[in-house]
Write a structure and sequence with these properties.
Layout (H helix, E strand, L loop, with lengths): L32 H6 L3 H23 L26 H15 L6 E4 L1 H8 L20 E2 L2 E5 L9 E3 L1 H4 L5
């Protein structure tokens, strides 16, 4: 707090210089010019499939890359990350404990959760003892969320492991 007319204290941020090599994620499909000319929709199909394959490989690298070139350093293989064991907790309880751990020990506010589709299915299909879905009615579409945090659902995430993080503040992807 600063009294009116008082001096405003200076804040400071300390950064440590880090460097990382730029790595490439790529793929290709063998196709001839003749095939592309004979089937007009083939180019769109190939572009869509190649983009999807690259997206999944990028997600795999960002999550579990081992950091040895040409692999990226993934979130889950980085040393020093906080972990929350599930034990006998429900997925929902474990997620809240992970969020609290990041808030209390990591001094950050989680911005998203990354889950495997089968794990998210277990969350979405959880019901009360009288059969009502805990995560809303099945007729409503919307952003997938748990404890107010958006859920990124990807088969690149290891089943049985979720990643909770403050990705907005503490990560950056350059393409």
């Amino acid at each position: 707090a600063v009294a009116e007319g008082g001096s405003i204290p200076e804040a400071a941020l300390a950064y440590t210089q880090q460097s990382s090599l730029v790595e490439k994620i790529a793929t290709w499909l063998p196709v001839t010019l003749e095939q592309l000319e004979d089937v007009p929709s083939l180019r769109g199909l190939i572009d869509y499939r190649l983009s999807y394959m690259l997206q999944l490989k990028e997600e795999d690298q960002l999550l579990a890359g081992n950091g040895t070139a040409p692999n990226l350093q993934g979130f889950l293989t980085k040393t020093g990350i906080l972990t929350q064991a599930r034990g006998t907790d429900s997925i929902q309880d474990c997620m809240y404990k992970a969020i609290s751990l990041i808030r209390n020990s990591g001094f950050a506010e989680p911005s998203a959760v990354v889950m495997h589709p089968a794990d998210w299915q277990a969350v979405r299909l959880a019901t009360t003892t009288t059969g009502e879905y805990l995560f809303g009615v099945t007729t409503e579409a919307g952003v997938e969320r748990i404890w107010g945090k958006p859920v990124v659902i990807t088969p690149a995430q290891t089943q049985g492991v979720a990643l909770v993080g403050d990705f907005a503040m503490y990560s950056h992807i350059s393409r």
